[in-house]
What does this fold into?
Amino acid sequence: MRYVLQLLIILFFSFCGELLHHFLPFPFPASIYGIVLLYISLELKIVKIENIKAVSTTLIMAMPIMFVPPAVGLLNNLHYMKAQWPKYLAITFISTFVVMAAAGWATQYIIEKKKNRKKT
It folds into this structure.
């Protein structure tokens, strides 16, 4: 029963994300809205980590399986991509470094913010 309740909490935030996506004019996916709502509720201690930890861990362990269908789709359409491979390679290379830089800066910002909290 514990897993069902935890899954329902996660699905609730996913559903709220779908509602926001439907009503707000911004181009963000519904899943992003749901994740942001869940993050805010965790930060505000509305939802405790213990209330979703078991199901979250299970979902994270199953996440690699979710990459199989897109990989198969890429392999099935490889003949379309052959003519465009330099563009795909450039986009992949540039976006990898942009994401790495953004993640590094965000991590440094959070670490500095936590250090400043401890000092006060």
The chain has a mean pLDDT of 93. Residues 100 and 106 are 10 Å apart (CA to CA).
